[in-house]
C-alpha cells in the first residue's frame, strides 16, 4: 500500500472517532451546555452526606415522651431549696433532725446538720409548730415550758439573716439563715456556753470600735491569732464579721478575749487605759443595734451590730 492511501485511511478513522465523541457529549448536555433534566433529577434524588430524611415525632420515638423523670428532676431541684436553722432554748440546742419527716413542705436534711429544705410557702411559726415548738412574737413554748419575752431576764429572739422577724409573718426561703433563741439572763448556763463547731450554723455580726475617732482594725494579726479563743474571734484576715461559736457568748466575754481589751459591767479597758461607760458623762459608750447595753449580760445574737466608742479626752 502506497503512502498516499495509508494517509487517507488514517484521516477517515480520525473523522469517524471525532463524530462519535461529539454525539456522546450532545446526549449529556442541552444545547446551552447545561445538564439535562434527567441528569438534574438523578442528582436531586441523591441525599447529601450531611442531610438526614425528616421524621415525625412518632417515628423518632419522642411523640409519647414520659415526663416522670422530668418531674422527678424538678422535684429534686425544689428539694434543694435549702436554708439553715438553729433553735436554742434555755441553753439547749434543739435537735430538729427527723422532726419534719412527715411534712411535705419542709424537711431537715439527712446528711447536713441544721439544713432544711422547703417546697412551698412555710412560715417560721408553722415550721416550729411541726417540731412541737409553739411560737408567737412574744412567747415560745417547748417541752412543757413557756418562755415569755416580757418576763424579767428572759429574751425570746427570732432572726432571719440577722434581722428580727415575727414568726407568724416570716416565710422560710432558700438560702435563709434562721435563729430562734430563748435566753434567760442569770440562768443555769455559764458563759461562754456550749461550743458550736465551725461547720455548724453559728453566730455572726459586725463591730465598730473607735478610740478618739480612729477605728480599731481587727484585721491586724494580733486580733487574728489562730486558736486564741474558740468561742469568739475574727478570722480570714477580716475585721468583720465577728464569729461567736455559742449562743451564750456575752459581749463582754467576746471583747475581753481580744489582746489589749477588757470589758466589765461599767468599764472598757483599751491599751492599758480604763474608761467608764453607761453614764451620761462617761468617756466610753457601748451600743448594740443602736441601744445602750450592759456588756456583761448581753448575749450576742446573729446580726448584732456592736458599737464601742472611747473618747480619751473625757
From TrEMBL:
Superkingdom of this protein's organism: Archaea
Biased composition (Polar residues): 29-58
Region of interest (Disordered), ranges: 29-80
Regions of compositional bias (Basic and acidic residues) in chain numbering: 62-72
Biological source species: Salinirubrum litoreum
Name by which UniProt lists this protein: DUF5666 domain-containing protein
Amino acid at each position: 500500500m502506497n503512502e498516499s492511501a495509508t494517509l487517507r485511511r488514517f484521516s477517515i478513522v480520525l473523522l469517524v472517532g471525532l463524530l462519535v465523541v461529539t454525539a456522546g457529549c450532545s446526549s449529556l448536555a442541552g444545547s446551552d451546555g447545561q445538564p439535562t433534566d434527567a441528569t438534574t433529577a438523578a442528582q436531586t434524588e441523591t441525599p447529601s452526606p450531611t442531610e438526614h430524611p425528616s421524621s415525625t415525632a412518632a417515628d423518632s420515638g419522642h411523640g409519647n415522651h414520659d415526663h416522670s423523670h422530668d418531674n422527678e428532676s424538678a422535684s429534686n431541684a425544689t428539694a434543694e431549696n435549702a436554708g439553715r436553722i438553729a433553735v436554742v432554748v434555755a441553753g439547749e440546742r434543739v435537735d430538729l433532725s427527723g422532726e419534719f419527716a412527715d411534712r411535705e413542705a419542709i424537711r431537715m436534711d439527712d446528711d447536713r446538720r441544721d439544713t432544711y429544705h422547703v417546697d412551698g410557702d412555710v412560715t417560721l411559726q408553722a415550721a416550729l409548730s411541726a417540731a412541737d415548738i409553739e411560737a408567737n412574737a412574744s412567747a415560745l413554748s417547748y417541752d412543757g415550758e413557756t418562755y415569755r419575752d416580757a418576763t424579767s431576764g428572759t429574751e425570746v429572739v427570732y432572726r432571719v439573716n440577722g434581722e428580727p422577724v415575727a414568726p407568724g409573718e416570716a416565710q422560710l426561703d432558700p438560702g435563709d439563715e434562721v435563729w430562734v433563741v430563748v435566753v434567760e439572763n442569770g440562768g443555769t448556763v455559764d458563759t461562754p456556753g456550749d461550743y458550736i463547731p465551725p461547720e455548724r450554723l453559728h453566730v455572726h455580726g459586725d463591730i465598730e470600735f473607735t478610740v478618739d475617732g480612729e477605728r480599731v482594725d481587727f484585721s491586724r494579726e494580733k486580733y487574728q491569732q489562730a486558736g486564741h479563743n474558740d468561742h469568739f474571734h475574727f478570722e480570714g484576715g477580716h475585721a468583720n464579721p465577728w464569729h461567736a461559736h455559742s449562743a451564750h457568748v456575752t459581749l463582754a466575754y467576746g471583747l475581753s478575749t481580744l489582746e489589749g481589751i477588757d470589758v466589765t459591767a461599767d468599764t472598757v479597758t483599751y491599751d492599758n487605759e480604763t474608761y467608764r461607760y453607761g453614764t451620761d458623762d462617761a468617756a466610753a459608750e457601748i451600743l448594740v443595734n443602736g441601744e445602750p447595753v450592759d456588756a456583761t449580760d448581753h448575749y450576742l445574737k446573729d446580726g448584732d451590730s456592736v458599737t464601742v466608742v472611747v473618747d480619751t479626752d473625757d
